[in-house]
């Protein structure tokens, strides 16, 4: 009996977690667009996106180094993006990156105050990866489509 | 007109694309520092106000796949007229030769334990005020050498490190009784905030004064060749609701004349965040050295601590800690029990 209760509770929690994750993914794809310069990719799923933003891969398939671009604390979407991608507050994201850089495991990410600054940086730096609001005007060659 | 030999041309044709060329040099310079106020209470009361280590930290992406990391630390040095001395703590070039695999050369922290690999000089990252006791006796903190590193491999984010080098800072890799030190380490990161690791280290010493390294392996100079071995297990989990860090070390030293000594150390930290930035914590740390050990000499130390860390920003925090510290330095026939009250302000800029 006890095992059965635990089993059903686990099932409910798993379903709730997946519903929450799917909701986040929908929010993300409807509100934001992923952009990268010479990544060699045209589409990506959110799990892969999260891995790349967490420094899982040093380089793209094009052998160009990944340069992470993130919204700064002054960016209006900083907290929301931190939650969606890192499941942390913006404060937690800063700590995460400070630690990685201090260990010498990854180059420091670049933080910008607005979508315009993010687009400008990415368009000038090969390998740069970031995301901006769906409303922002971006050249098609930089856009990576988010797939389920 | 300059004529290049075909072999030289071939060399550049192979090496140039391997090294890569960056479109823009990306360099960042940061600093880290700390100040401490300590009060020790045993038979008497002693207090200190110290300016601690100040660290200039530089990283630079030199090309697409070569980067530099350097740390120059100015730290208290009683033998200096100013009370401080400067040293290069890390200076390493990293060449990422294939995906997440790299070759590193220079002076670096031995990756034998989580603590030494993750935040050696950055007090602002430390979970507690002090390093584990093993750092004063067992842990070979720095190594000059060559390192093969792999990171974030597979679903478990497996990582490995193989280091050949010299930790005594003599710069000598071979010759006489000396051969390169060997460090083998591996870890997995099953979750973002979790890392489980294991490290092995071996080096032989003879006529080497290790006492100059105030946080290094050994406090005594031995004239007979001694084999120094260290096995380290680390578990770290810094979740939103619970922080756990355990560093277990087993150190074996052996000399032909008196045989083998088995020494142990374990540091455990448990933090329970009230909020993301307010973290009460507690733990203990012990170290035990056998009578046959001639590097560190027979002793037993244990400390229990409870404290609180308040993070104002990711680069500014204050820690307050109360410790009960018992030490039995058997080789000096001296025991000591004391209460320690400590406050540390740690910052980065």
Fourth-level CATH superfamily of chain B? Porin
H/E topology pattern of chain A: HEEHEHHEHEE
CATH top-level class of chain B: Mainly Beta
Q: What is the count of structural domains of chain A?
A: 1
User: What global shape of chain B is seen?
Assistant: globular
Give the integer mean of the pLDDT values of chain A: 85
Protein architecture, described:
The complex is a heterodimer of chains A (148) and B (349). Chain A has 148 residues and is α/β, with parallel strands linked by helices. Chain A has one domain: Periplasmic binding protein-like II (D-Maltodextrin-Binding Protein, domain 2), CATH 3.40.190.10. Helix content of chain A is 47%, strand content 18%. Chain A is built from 5 helices and 6 strands, in the order αββαβααβαββ. Chain A has a 6-stranded mixed sheet, with helices on both faces. Chain A is globular. The model of chain A has no long low-confidence stretch (mean pLDDT 85). Chain B has 349 residues and is mostly beta strands. Chain B has one domain (33-47, 87-348): Porin, CATH 2.40.160. In chain B, 7% of the residues lie in helices and 58% in strands. Chain B contains 3 helices and 16 strands. Chain B has a 16-stranded antiparallel beta barrel with strand order 1-2-3-4-5-6-7-8-9-10-11-12-13-14-15-16. In chain B, a hairpin with a 5-residue loop joins strand 8 (181-188) and strand 9. The longest helix of chain B has 14 residues, at 6-19. Chain B is globular and about 75 Å long. The termini of chain B are far apart. Residues 211-215 of chain B have low confidence and may be disordered. The interface between A and B is medium-sized, with 30 and 36 residues.
What would a concise description of this structure say?
Chain A is an alpha/beta fold. Chain A has one domain: Periplasmic binding protein-like II (D-Maltodextrin-Binding Protein, domain 2, 3-Layer(aba) Sandwich).
């Amino acid at each position: 009996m006890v095992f059965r209760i635990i089993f059903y509770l686990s099932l409910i929690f798993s379903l709730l977690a997946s519903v929450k994750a799917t909701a986040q993914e929908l929010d993300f794809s409807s509100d934001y667009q992923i952009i990268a310069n010479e990544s060699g990719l045209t589409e990506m799923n959110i799990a892969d996106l999260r891995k790349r933003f967490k420094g899982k891969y040093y380089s793209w398939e094009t052998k160009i180094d990944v340069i992470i671009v993130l919204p700064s604390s002054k960016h209006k979407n900083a907290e929301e993006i931190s939650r969606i991608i890192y499941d942390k507050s913006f404060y937690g994201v800063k700590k995460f990156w400070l630690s990685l850089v201090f260990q010498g495991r990854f180059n420091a990410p670049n933080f910008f105050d607005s979508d315009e600054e993010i687009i400008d940086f990415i368009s000038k730096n090969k390998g740069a990866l970031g995301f901006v609001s769906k409303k922002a005007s971006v050249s098609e060659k930089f856009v990576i489509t988010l797939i389920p | 007109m300059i004529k290049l030999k075909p072999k030289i041309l071939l060399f550049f044709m192979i090496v140039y694309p391997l090294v890569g060329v960056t479109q823009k040099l990306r360099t960042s310079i940061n600093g880290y520092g700390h100040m401490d106020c300590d009060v020790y209470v045993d038979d008497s009361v002693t207090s200190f106000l110290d300016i601690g280590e100040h660290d200039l930290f530089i990283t630079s992406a030199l090309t697409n796949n070569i980067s530099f990391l350097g740390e120059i630390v100015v730290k208290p040095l009683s033998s200096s007229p100013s009370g401080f001395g400067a040293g290069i703590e890390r200076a390493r070039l990293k060449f990422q030769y294939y995906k997440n695999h790299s070759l590193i050369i220079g002076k670096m922290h031995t990756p034998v334990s989580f603590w030494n690999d993750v935040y050696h000089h950055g007090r602002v990252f430390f979970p507690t005020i002090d390093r584990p006791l093993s750092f004063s006796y067992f842990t070979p903190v720095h190594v000059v050498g060559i390192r093969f590193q792999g990171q974030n491999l597979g679903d478990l984010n497996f990582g490995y490190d193989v280091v050949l080098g010299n930790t005594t800072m003599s710069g000598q890799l071979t010759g006489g009784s000396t051969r390169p030190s060997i460090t083998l380490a591996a870890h997995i990161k099953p979750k973002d905030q979790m890392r489980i690791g294991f490290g092995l280290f071996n080096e032989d010493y003879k006529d080497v004064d290790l006492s100059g390294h105030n946080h290094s392996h050994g406090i005594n100079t031995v004239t007979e060749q001694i084999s120094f071995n260290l096995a380290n297990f680390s578990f770290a989990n810094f979740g939103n609701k619970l922080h756990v860090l355990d560093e277990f070390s087993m150190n074996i030293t052996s000399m032909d004349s008196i045989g083998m000594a088995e020494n142990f150390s374990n540091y455990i930290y448990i933090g329970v965040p009230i909020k993301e930035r307010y973290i009460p914590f507690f733990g203990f740390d012990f170290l035990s050295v056998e009578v046959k050990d001639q590097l560190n000499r027979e002793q037993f130390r244990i400390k229990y601590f409870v404290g609180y860390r308040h993070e104002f920003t990711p680069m500014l925090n204050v820690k307050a800690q109360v410790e009960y510290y018992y030490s039995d330095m058997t080789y000096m026939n001296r025991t000591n029990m004391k209460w320690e009250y400590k406050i540390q302000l740690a910052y980065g800029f």
